């Protein structure tokens, strides 16, 4: 949505959607001066982003033809119509007047004389006038070399966190989005295993085996009888070793051993952990059926997976 708002701010009339917004929503107003309490849900959400983007936008005053005198935040203090309505009244100008009304030959020329020029409101406007750069009015993004992008917006509003080594396990040309999402939950320990307090009504013992052990992430992927047979079957077909039977150490080892864009590493990242969606799906099926089906049937489906 930030990209859509940016196109409206810049007045990108090459976009049919932006042209429609200017005709039906804005009319003779600017996107900064319209109320965010009217219109469709999407339009109101778009307008709520204005306060977030504004500190990251630079308004470069040129000839003043594009910018509105009172309805665009070209001034360092913000929209003049909201901050100093009386100060604008002292200029005897219409609120829809362009900024060019107070620019002559590249200089600020405000049509205020006598005692009105010394009013508090008007002095506040004059005190922090921006530099006139010449040319046409421009709107620039303050970051990323002045080039707006969704990635740049995301980088400035997200909460940065430490870089994790296992992120490479979620990418690759052979990865399936659904499987990557389940693997991400498994790495974070967020899968709905039976050791979670909110699943206590289902019991804590693993339903995939008969060992009577609590179902944790490590048990589900390495200690469970069915999981070990499933992993051994995949390992036999793909012919790659799996040195650890502990979940955290396995993640650390795989993220280092299978790093890079080589096709073999991409294939191993896809095959090495794609049994996890099968295990979680099998567990859900077993819970709904009240028990496991024949393990040989399930192993056959695991190989096909």
TrEMBL record:
Residues 148-229 form the Reverse transcriptase zinc-binding domain. InterPro entries: RVT-Znf. This is Reverse transcriptase zinc-binding domain-containing protein.
